[in-house]
Amino acid sequence: MTPLRCRAEAAFPGSDPRAVSDALAFAAVAGVLIIAGGLVAAVNSAAPFPHGSWLSAYLVLVGGVAQLLLGGAPLALPAPNRSARLRRTQLGLWNTGGAAVAAGVLADLDALVLVGSAVVVAALACFAVGGGPARSGLRGPVVLYRLLIGGLAISVGVGSVLAGAAPG
Fold this sequence. Notes:
This protein has helices at 3-11, 17-46, 52-72, 84-106, 110-130, 139-163. The protein has 168 residues and is an all-alpha fold. It has one domain (14-163). α3 runs antiparallel to α4. It starts with a helix and ends in a 5-residue tail after the last helix.
């Protein structure tokens, strides 16, 4: 193995089987949610129901696309936290919070939307911790990952306000 290849493998853990396995777990759940979003869109177009279009978009964008980005990004980060416990916590909190938000919107329960939003924010904090340190010279991917997390956190707050669930 060449010294350059060794440094590249040490800098980016994409070849680590556990990192790939973790990313695949996120991708599998995200894939199911993207398909579910498509099915909801099909049902809603045939027999519209309250919040049907919103639910479809939420499943695809939050449950699917955002989860793919958050769960797969550690493959491109220089030194992510590889704790299996943390990755399970991220996956569990993200999907539990997302399910609570969706259920709260569908049932018009603002308190459930607020609780689900808080769980999603906790998941985002776990993702931020999981990004690991920004090594000198390799800060770009970590900064982009944390900007994604910050943007999602802002959107949780905006979504809570729009849903009428924000306190005050």
